[in-house]
Amino acid sequence: MNAINETISFIKEQYKTENPIPLHTPYFGGNEKKYLIETIDSTYVSSVGAYVDQFELMMENITQTSKTVAVVNGTAAIQVALRLIGVKTGDEVLTQALTFVATANAIAYQNATPVFLDVDLDTMGLSPKAVEIFLDEFGDLRQDGCYNKKTGKKISACLPMHTFGFPVHLIELIEICNKWKIPVVEDAAESLGSKYKGKSTGSFGKLGTFSFNGNKIVTCGGGGAIVTNDLKLGQKGKYLTTTAKIPHPYEFVHDEMGYNFRMPNLNAALACAQLEQLDDFLQNKRKLANEYKTFFESNGIIFRTETPDTEANYWLMCIELENKSERDLFLKSTNKNNVMTRPIWKLMYRLPMYSNCQRDEQLNAEFLEDRIVNIPSSVR
Ligand SMILES: *Cc1c(COP(=O)(O)O)cnc(C)c1O
């Protein structure tokens, strides 16, 4: 009880307020208004415009990839990335059950089925070991890829998610997936600015996806991005998300079923102004993370920190309580006292639409599900 009260006071001191403290609020301290007004004055508020192009260049620069496609949100980014990598009706995609529902939904939009494998305790993201164990038991390597011995279906992608900005063990995961001819798409929605061995998350897989929703580290109201080092795939992504139109000065010719998943220029203007501040946001959050770390060391609650070889963006910071009842007590007291906290997501196979999907034992995911709580993490 004492540790909880101390935590409440500490968080209120950090944010210097007695008002409700949210988990994560956007911070508009740069050129946001300027760029938005410019955009309105230019009349290019919609699906094409200079800020869309600039946003794509900035993302290529930040993630050190050769092609970025700006899209309407992070969920659409995953859906299109899966289509680009060849996920088709009836296929299966390996992913984690400990994730936000959009990861699983994007798989279902391709009429494919998620297979839920366990996470690592240290990263809270898809475990290379769990993938290896699963494939050793169920993998059937054929000429055209990997099949699931149990279902007979093709496993056409692996979709790890970097939980709260903590990178998964990417090198090991990609090595195993390569061995089994399974392409990797990274759901990096939460990990813009996070690095693994000095390289940006999202740039390791064949494709990576980001979200710029209102609660993410950088927001543009709503938006997403697909990044890749495969120029051809990137160009195909741009084409599919812009109605699959063949370039022509005045005729409308579309030769595939595409999408209108474009990021409006108005949103891109906001995104550019926000991306200019990414380094400041990262520094600001790292400072708060260090303060939390020192504080929690003295009061006996575990504050989750980045793993060796990684740099986390500390998007949503989190603590690990002793057990479920301690967690529930913490959630109740903090929320009652104007400090917003919330538990990690319910595992995907507890949701009705994904309850019949194949999965492994989920020992780590269930451990974390009972104990992990997010605490206020906004840029101050
Ligand atoms: C936010 C988020 C998404 C989806 O992003 P939207 O822009 O809200 O569609 C996908 N996956 C994860 C893990 C997320 O946190």
TrEMBL record:
InterPro entries: DegT/StrS_aminotransferase, LegC-like, PyrdxlP-dep_Trfase, PyrdxlP-dep_Trfase_major, PyrdxlP-dep_Trfase_small. Keywords: Aminotransferase, Pyridoxal phosphate, Transferase. Signal peptide: none annotated. One of its GO terms (molecular function) is transaminase activity. It comes from the Bacteria. Coiled coil: none annotated. NCBIfam families: NHT_00031. Belongs to the DegT/DnrJ/EryC1 family. This is LegC family aminotransferase. It comes from Flavobacterium endoglycinae. The lineage of its organism: Bacteria, Pseudomonadati, Bacteroidota, Flavobacteriia, Flavobacteriales.
